[in-house]
UniProtKB/TrEMBL annotation:
Keywords: Cell membrane, Membrane, Transmembrane, Transmembrane helix, Transport. The chain crosses the membrane at residues 43-65, 77-100, 106-124, 136-160, 166-186, 212-233, 245-263, 275-294, 300-318, 339-360, 366-387. Pfam families: MFS_1. This is MFS transporter. Residues 10-393 form the Major facilitator superfamily (MFS) profile domain. The keyword Ribonucleoprotein does not apply. It is found in: Cell membrane. It is a multi-pass membrane protein. It comes from Gordonia crocea.
């Protein structure tokens, strides 16, 4: 289906907004984790478990929702996902113990994993000939959602007498409005297979396996960084600088996410493979500077490095996503997106849990440089594989320039 064939002109923009909302909900508690740690006396391991169960829920979605949405349509899956988000937000509103947070985050992980996979496929349904541009806009929307929600959550918590309640109440109201719009959305996937749903491992067509390997390494590396920086890094920056303000944490997270969104937008006209390679190399530099910035305790250095790291993350993730969107066949969109985000959520869960467990025993400050070293080596490996791919494949798929002049 092309955008002209879809009866609702606002469908494409709504799907992007849904992606932004999903990742906004994923980052919503991040500025609040230091408050939970202080008021509830939670260890770094507990915080990372709360974060990691989100990734585990998302993994379940990534394994299932692509084929399901290919069979029955995107809209029923998205309705179920928004319902789960509302239930999770309700749990946050009444939470009093860590296990409440874990259940809420598991629900959010399953819901947000479904939205990222299914909305990504739906965007290709609505505009099938703008795959690379869809990938760029998807990446921008994801990071804009995190930036706005992290800053808004921090502001609401900073000046509210109920800092662990108000942010979730506000977002719940937004989700309710989005649900109304979703209910009137015309199903984007008109070529539903209608076949019996069979849960199987995500399948990648043999024709794009080499491309998928490159893109998969890109999301695995970049989302490893995202997982730890949304869970452990906020408290780490507070201790390094002496800032106890929740707003400071919100600024650090939103600066990183905003820079990521901007870098993906600006790089949309460049070759996605080359963009991802530059991003992986940039993450190595920015991660090293993150250790240096924490050691100095300089506020300006930490914020500036967060901007650089966000920009590099945006290039690495955005480039890999655009490249994959270029080459994915129409009849395998849901399955390929499932496989792609499966790698992303594995990258969130495994390094985050490992770092949290080690931090609880040895201290976050002692573990963080080692985490940086491991991820930097992985990013270097991704860049090397990307460069070898460029060398081995002199003929590459060219991008289709959209009418508005923004490609990617």
């Amino acid at each position: 289906m092309t955008s002209a064939q879809h009866p609702q002109r606002w469908a494409f923009g709504f799907l992007l907004a849904l992606l932004a909302l999903a990742l906004g909900v994923s980052g919503l508690p991040s500025p609040l984790y230091p408050i939970y740690q202080s008021q509830w006396h939670l260890s770094p391991l507990t915080i990372t478990i709360v974060f990691a169960v989100y990734a585990l829920g998302a993994l379940g979605s990534a394994l299932t929702v692509g084929p399901i949405s290919d069979s029955i349509g995107r809209k029923p899956v998205l309705i179920a996902a928004l319902t789960a988000i509302l239930v999770g937000l309700g749990l946050f509103l009444v939470a009093g113990q860590a296990w409440h947070l874990e259940i809420a985050r598991f629900l959010h992980g399953a819901a947000i994993g479904a939205i990222t996979v299914v909305s990504g496929a739906a965007l290709l349904d609505v505009r099938p000939h703008d795959g690379a541009r869809n990938g760029m806009l998807s990446g921008v929307a994801l990071n804009v959602g995190i930036a706005i929600t992290a800053l808004g959550s921090a502001a609401a918590a900073q000046w509210s007498s109920i800092p662990l309640r108000l942010p979730f109440a506000i977002v719940a109201a937004v989700v309710a409005v989005m649900m109304v719009a979703l209910l009137v959305l015309v199903e984007p996937h008109q070529d539903r297979t209608g076949e019996r749903i069979r849960i199987a491992a995500p399948a990648v067509p043999s024709s794009i396996r080499a491309d998928f390997s490159f893109s998969g390494i890109g999301i695995f590396t970049s989302w490893s960084v995202l997982g730890v920086f949304l869970s452990l890094y906020p408290a780490l920056t507070q201790r390094a600088t002496g800032h106890t303000s929740v707003m400071f944490v919100g600024v650090v997270i939103s600066a990183m996410a905003a820079a990521s969104a901007l870098s993906q937008w600006l790089s949309g006209r460049f070759n996605p493979r080359s963009t991802a390679i530059v991003g992986n190399l940039g993450m190595i530099v920015a991660l090293g500077c993150a250790v240096w910035a924490l050691d100095t305790g300089a506020t300006w250095f930490i914020i500036a490095d967060s901007v650089v790291l966000g920009a590099a993350f945006g290039l690495a993730f955005g480039g890999s996503l655009r490249h994959l969107n270029q080459v994915t066949p129409a009849d395998a969109r849901g399955a390929v997106m499932s496989a792609y985000y499966l790698l992303g959520y594995l990258a969130m869960a495994i390094p985050t849990i490992t770092a949290g467990a080690l931090a609880s025993r040895f201290g976050t400050e002692a573990i963080f440089p080692w985490f940086v070293l491991v991820v930097a080596l992985a990013a270097l490996g991704a860049a090397v594989i990307g460069l070898r791919g460029v060398r081995d494949r002199p003929v590459v798929i060219t991008e289709v320039s959209p009418p508005c002049g923004v490609s990617g």
